[in-house]
Design a protein that fits this description.
The protein is of the alpha/beta class and 322 residues long. The protein has a single domain, classed as Rossmann fold, CATH 3.40.50.970. 46% of the residues lie in helices and 12% in strands. It has 11 helices and 8 strands. The chain has helices at 3-34, 48-56, 71-76, 81-88, 121-134, 154-166, 195-199, 213-230, 257-264, 268-278, 284-307, and strands at 63-67, 112-116, 142-147, 170-176, 179-180, 183-184, 204-209, 234-239. Helix 6 (154-166) links the parallel strand 3 (142-147) and strand 4. The N and C termini lie far apart (58 Å).
């Protein structure tokens, strides 16, 4: 095996571990919610390859803005599962002192500016972040994650149009997961690919298989290189599927069972596991050990969060700006 091949194998193995961490973390969060031990949250089960692939291509100075389905992006960026879990549960040991919950987390040390519960809210704000970067000497870029539902909001069109006109260094990542809360994408748009809309604004764009983490990472690297070289935006659509409901709990009775079953056959984690086992990159023993380690980390995060105190009353007005 060459040095390059070894690096590739290590990167893909790391991607699998990241995806397993995201999946296990979100399933544990759903379990705690069902037991009445945690607030409801929106999971990204089925979309892990998008988060792991895109974030792996970002540099340390690049910035991230994301949405209500954000835990995967945070964990892929290297956020501490304990502090993310604590924040979701409103505990003082969370990244925002328990004040943001799962919907407004900010992790400044990792360049995560914010998550937005307002559909498309991050799209308006990334325009300002991108403008700031364009006025600096930095080669950093801003990456914004949003869903196909947000792409039907007026703010989406305003944001991408300004980014194109002003040449802003923004990577738009549309995680097209087919569902806009409880409404299927086909009920709100005639196109299958949101990336087609970006072309109308003069923005370079690409659609990639969002369940193939290697394809996502490669596309993200190329997109980021383009942005750094040209200081212009790029639109990357990761075509994927949300395997759980819009939020916990959600029985998904509105979903066609055949469609759901079809996408389950393309579970990004299961596909990557099979590939790495067949290619001999991982052994079954190594894969089992990886899963045990991930579960241990998540269980530790849950215990840490449940044992952490809630913020005290005197913290009510701190971190509030006017």
């Amino acid at each position: 095996m060459t040095t390059v091949e070894a690096v590739i194998d290590r990167n893909v193995t790391q991607a699998l571990e990241t995806m397993l961490l995201i999946r296990t973390f979100e399933e544990k969060s759903a379990e705690l919610q069902a037991a009445g031990l945690s607030p409801s949250m929106c999971t990204s089960v089925g979309q892990e390859a998008s988060a792991a692939g895109v974030v792996s291509a970002l540099g340390p100075n690049d910035l991230i803005l994301t949405n209500h389905r954000s835990a995967g992006h945070l964990l892929a960026r290297g956020a501490d599962p304990r502090r993310v879990m604590a924040e979701i549960q409103g505990r003082a040991t969370g990244y925002c002192g328990g004040k943001s919950g799962s919907l407004h987390i900010s992790v400044k040390d990792l360049g995560v500016i914010l998550t937005s519960t307002i559909v498309g809210g991050e799209l308006s704000l990334v325009t300002g972040v991108g403008l700031s970067l364009s006025m600096s000497d930095s080669d950093a870029i801003a990456t914004v994650f949003f869903g196909d539902g947000a792409a039907t909001e007026g703010i989406f069109h305003e944001s991408v149009n300004l980014a194109a006109v002003w040449n802003l260094p923004i990577l738009y990542v549309c995680e097209n997961n087919q569902w806009q809360a409880y409404v299927h994408r086909k009920e709100t748009m005639l196109t299958d690919h949101v990336s087609e809309w970006a072309k109308g604004y003069g923005i370079a764009s690409r659609t990639v298989d969002g369940n193939d983490v290697e394809a996502v990472a490669e596309a993200a690297r190329e997109a980021i290189a383009y942005i750094r070289a040209n200081r212009k935006p790029f639109f990357l659509e990761t075509y994927t599927y949300r395997l759980r409901g819009h939020m916990e709990p959600d029985d998904q009775k509105y979903v066609d069972p055949a469609e759901l079953a079809s996408w389950r056959q393309r579970d990004p984690i299961a596909m990557l596991e099979r590939k790495l086992l067949v290619d001999g990159v991982l052994s079954s023993v190594e894969l089992a050990a990886m899963k045990v380690n991930v579960v241990k980390r998540v269980e530790d995060a849950a215990a840490y969060a449940l044992e952490s105190p809630y913020p005290s009353i005197d913290q009510m007005t701190t971190d509030v700006y006017a």
